[in-house]
């Protein structure tokens, strides 16, 4: 990779984080309901995420800011739902999540892991409020259960959601 590409990628990465902060302020989102996860514990969450769901034998673990296209490397024994096209409206987002995870619990907190390496924790209504506003910046994202037993994946290439579970 050349230096110019790396600089551009880092610039987009930080623009995403800044945009999320602006959305939190503009929408007056309660920081107890959605917040950036502790930077000192990012690697712990990304490691659990990576080793819980992805093929890693004979491959290096990606850097925390290189989480795009991981959906191509899910472990083969995991259960996959059908893919659902995503329209990016709040209502469609909830409907799509319910289609791929029928037993989804809106009263629990989840991790939101972005392809840019940012890790957030929050309730689904706040996560969706953020994602609906920032969709132009996101290639892939993952909404992950805190037990790391399932996740919902968004794949920008297919503009769809699907779930993966153990």
Task: Walk me through what this model shows.
With 166 residues, this protein is an alpha+beta fold. 35% of the residues lie in helices and 21% in strands. Strands 1, 2, 3, 4, 5, 6, 7 and 8 form an eight-stranded antiparallel sheet that branches. The termini are far apart. The model has no long low-confidence stretch (mean pLDDT 86).
Number-wise, the strands total 8
The biggest beta sheet reads: 8 strands, antiparallel
Instruction: Give the fraction of residues assigned to helices.
Output: 25-40%
From the spread of the alpha carbons, the general shape counts as globular
Terminal CA distance: 35 Å
Which class best fits the helix and strand makeup? alpha+beta
Task: Compute the average pLDDT.
Answer: 86
Unreliable stretches (pLDDT < 50, length at least 5) are none
Radius of gyration: 15 Å
Strand/helix succession: HEHEEHEEHEEE
Strand content: 15-25%
- Helical segment count: 4
């Amino acid at each position: 990779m050349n230096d110019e590409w790396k600089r551009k990628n880092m610039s987009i990465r930080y623009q995403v984080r800044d945009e999320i902060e602006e959305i939190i302020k503009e929408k007056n989102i309660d920081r107890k309901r959605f917040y950036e996860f502790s930077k000192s514990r990012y690697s712990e969450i990304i490691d659990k995420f990576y080793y819980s769901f992805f093929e890693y034998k004979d491959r290096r673990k990606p850097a925390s800011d290189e989480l795009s296209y991981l959906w191509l490397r899910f472990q083969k024994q995991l259960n996959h739902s059908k893919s659902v096209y995503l329209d990016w409206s709040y209502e469609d987002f909830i409907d799509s999540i319910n289609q791929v995870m029928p037993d989804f619990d809106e009263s629990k907190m989840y991790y939101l892991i972005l392809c840019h390496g940012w890790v957030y924790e929050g309730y689904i209504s706040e996560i969706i409020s953020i994602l609906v506003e920032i969709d132009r910046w996101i290639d892939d994202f993952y909404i992950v259960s805190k037990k790391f037993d399932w996740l919902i994946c968004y794949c920008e290439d297919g503009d769809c959601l699907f779930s993966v579970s153990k």
